[in-house]
Design brief:
The structure holds two protein chains of two kinds.
Chain A lengths: L5 H12 L5 H9 L1 H19 L9 H13 L13 H4 L3 H11 L2 H20 L4 H33 L5 H27 L4 H28 L1
Helix pairs in contact in A: 1-3, 2-3, 3-4, 3-7, 8-10, 9-10
Chain B lengths: L3 E3 L10 H17 L6 E6 L5 E16 L3 E8 L4 E8 L2 E8 L11 E8 L3 E14 L5 E5 L3 E5 L4 E5 L5 E4 L2 E8 L4 E4 L2 E9 L4 E4 L7 E6 L3 E6 L5 E7 L4 E3 L18 E7 L4 E7 L3 E6 L2
Parallel strand pairs in B: 3-6, 3-7, 3-8, 8-9, 8-10, 9-11, 10-12, 11-13, 12-14, 13-15, 14-16, 15-17, 16-18, 17-22, 18-23, 19-22, 20-23
Antiparallel strand pairs in B: 1-2, 2-4, 4-7, 5-6, 19-21
Classes of the chains: A mainly alpha, B mainly beta.
Chain lengths: ~230, ~300
């Protein structure tokens, strides 16, 4: 069976992570420790990413060790263990190891390594295998950004309602009608975002609806200040 | 620099006692009726590009351009519990309505205005309810309302209109137009504008105007209908997306010559070029309908 080179394997990497298993690629991975190690790392990152939907935890030590070994093997970084046997530094936790890289590495190498890690993570996150994980992350991200905003706006709404009590009835009615309309759109957008968390159009509309609500409450408050 | 006169005062009779017997009762009747609205006319000499600001809670504001280097403000307050202040600061004329006591009923907080300005005037108008109508003014304009409708005719410059529920009509406008609302309908008719940005949530948007070369036209709503009319000679690059609604198109589009469109994965989308694609049209709706129709 015709096998492929390491360079050719790169072209198969993405389909492989999406679940495709061509026989020539399988054969190459059986014989090439380098490429099988890359695949192992990416699969590890991918599986770790799944758990992010529950709690966003740091990747375990083995991921970082594996990534570090990979970067060392490719010559992108040098051994980070201190040459003069500084035991305290050698036993530092992962965060210390990662931060200790920064002063040691030339900036282009650091940038390259960082980019490689980012590409790997981004790639792992972009596959359909992680579709549900991504959706959960998008949803969580949207909720994180909108929940405090929603709470603040609801608080502002309670205050502004009393402000506009003495305004022109037509104006007050218009403000309240439109506030109800914006609230309705917020609810519909939130429903759309929860159904399709990665739908950027729905997210944009949701953020705009919040912006409109904020503008509206500002106007109501300003009017209240005018009449008081 | 202003002159001020009250209309009832000009009609004092100079006549004999016989006619006075008839006139005085009727004048008393008129003055009783006129006790509320007091029409006031003021004139202000201005230089080129004057700025006129109008702050009014409720009423009809009509602004027209004329050839004089002068601003004329005719105000009619609905009651004597409010007062209209019009004063000049350099080349700026500020017009505002203020209450004379703390307990003014909302219905009394109304004043109508008829204002004439030089055609190069810049306008800043704030009117919560009623209506704002501006014609033939070529300077920049900023109009903000809550429930009041806004009608602009033959305006130019940088036009920004913001309403909460008021509708907006722009006829034969040129220059740059930016309009936003929550529930107001927009009618943009016979425009010759190179930049139009219109966004309303539940309102409809009708655009029936020229698509100028290199012009950009962005129309966006949440629900409602977005409708553009085109003629055979128009030239535009079009992008229309409705997330949950329909896109109806009568234009024979060719695949876009400009490969910059990011094809959305959601909703109904239409991209393409009509003729040479000189103007750029973007229409976006959440669950509204987008119509691209031939002009009659």
């Amino acid at each position: 069976m015709a096998t492929i080179t390491c360079r050719e394997f790169l072209a198969y990497l993405e389909p492989w992570m999406e679940g495709e298993r061509p026989q020539d690629v399988q054969a190459h991975l059986r014989t090439c420790r380098h490429c099988s190690s890359v695949v192992s790392d990416l699969e590890l990152i991918q599986s770790e990413a799944r758990s992010w939907s529950v709690t966003e935890q740091d990747a375990p030590e083995r991921v970082w060790t594996s990534l570090r070994a990979q970067l060392e093997q490719e010559g992108l970084i040098r051994d980070a263990v201190p040459a003069r046997g500084d035991a305290a530094e050698a036993q530092a936790p992962r965060a210390g190891w990662f931060s200790s890289l920064f002063p040691r590495l030339p900036r282009p190498v650091l940038a390259g390594a960082y980019l490689a890690a980012l590409v790997a993570v981004a790639f792992a996150l972009s596959g359909p295998v992680n579709k549900r994980v991504n959706e959960a992350r998008w949803l969580k991200g949207t909720q994180i950004s909108t929940s405090p905003l929603s709470a603040q706006l609801n608080f502002a709404e309670q205050n502004s309602n009393s402000y506009v009590a003495r305004s022109n009835p037509d104006v007050t009615a218009s403000l309240h009608q439109n506030l109800a309309l914006v609230d309705k759109y917020i609810a519909l957008c939130e429903k759309s975002v929860s159904e399709e968390p990665q739908n950027e159009v729905a997210r944009d509309y949701l953020y705009e609806a919040y912006q409109q609500k904020a503008d509206l409450l500002t106007q109501m408050t300003e009017r209240g200040e005018n009449v008081q | 620099m202003s002159t001020s006169r009250f209309v009832p005062a000009q009609w004092l009779p100079k006549t004999n006692w016989k006619t006075a017997g008839l006139l005085i009762p009727s004048l008393l009747l008129c003055s009783a009726v006129a006790a509320g609205p007091r029409r006031q006319e003021q004139h202000f000499k201005v230089a080129a590009h004057p700025v006129i600001t109008i702050h009014n809670p409720n009423g009809l504001i009509t602004v027209k351009a004329w050839t004089k280097s002068e601003v004329m403000v005719i105000s009619t307050p609905a009651s004597d519990r409010i007062e209209v202040d019009a004063e000049q600061m350099g080349n700026r004329v500020d017009v505002s309505t203020r209450e004379l006591s703390d307990s003014v009923a909302p219905d009394d907080m109304r004043a109508d205005f008829q204002i004439n300005v030089p055609e190069d005037a810049e306008l800043q108008i704030h009117n919560d309810a009623g209506n704002v109508s501006v014609a033939n003014v070529l300077g920049d304009m900023n109009v903000e309302t809550v429930a009041a409708g806004v009608d602009l005719e033959d305006a130019a410059g940088y036009l920004t209109v913001k309403t909460v529920g008021g509708s907006f009509t722009c006829m034969r406008c040129a220059g740059r137009i930016e309009a936003s609302s929550i529930s107001g309908n927009f009618r943009l008719l016979d425009l010759r504008s190179y930049h139009v940005w219109a966004q309303t949530s539940s309102g409809n948007i009708l655009f029936n105007g020229e698509f100028l070369p290199n012009g950009t036209y962005s129309l966006k709503n949440y629900s409602g209908v977005i409708e553009v009319r085109f003629s055979a000679g128009d030239s535009f690059d079009l992008s229309a997306t409705s997330l949950k609604g329909k896109v109806n198109n009568e234009a024979k589009l060719t695949p876009s010559a400009h490969q910059h469109h990011f094809m959305p994965k959601w909703g109904n989308a239409l991209f393409g070029t009509f003729n040479e694609g000189r103007a750029k049209i973007e229409m976006t709706s959440f669950d509204g309908t987008i119509n691209i129709l031939k002009r009659d």
